[in-house]
Each structure stands twice: as structure tokens, then as C-alpha cells.
Amino acid sequence: MLRVLMFLVPLALSIYAFIDCISTKDEDVQHIPKPLWALLVLLFPLVGSISWLIAGKKRHPATASGALGSVGTPWNRGGGGRQWVAPDDNPEFLKSLRDEDGVGDGDDKGKGKDEKDRDKRDGGEDPKGD
Known about the structure:
Elements: H1 2-23, H2 34-43, H3 45-56, H4 91-101, H5 113-121
Helix pairs in contact: 1-2, 1-3, 2-3
């Protein structure tokens, strides 16, 4: 098994580096032209791949300007970069659930049995009169 890994890991690294190299924009390539990087990765798989990943491509730091995505998407929190936000952290999604269930209208239409029991215990009004 270890012999197989010693072959597959460098192969996977080379394939990843080659695809990354050819899909990178020309203006993001550093030090030598893009075709030479691709040849380096193909001719010297391990050294070429590692050198491409370390020095071949400009790395763009995450910006706080929110250039990607708009404020109303689940991909950001209003000002950060393009980052996915879980539905339970997304205020717009939670608001849509409240609107859909009718919570906050004064009625118990969207409440489950546990919520109704809790309201009854806390002195809230029980709609069925139990």
C-alpha cells in the first residue's frame, strides 16, 4: 500500500499543479512565462509541481471590500469577501422562514407542540384552551 501511495501522491500533485498552471491567467503567473511553467511541471513532476505551487502564481489576499457577491446573497455577510454562510447564520434566510411560518403575527400557526407547551407553561395563551 505504501508503494502505491509513493506513486499516487506525486502523480496527483503533478496533475493538480499542471491544471492549476494552465488555468491560471497570464497576468497572475510570476517569474517565468506560463508555457515554461507547464513544461517544468511536466518534465520534472515533483520539483516542478512544488516550485509552481510556491513561486509560480501570485496569491491574492482576501479583501474586505466585498467586490464579489452582493449584500443580499448567502455568500457573504454584507462586507467580507465571497464566503459561504450557513443558512442558520443568514439573517435573510431566517427572516424568510419566520415570514413563511407566520411567526410574529400574534398567532400560533407556525408553532410546534413543544413551543405551544412552553407558551402555556410560561403563562402564554393556549389557542385550543387545553
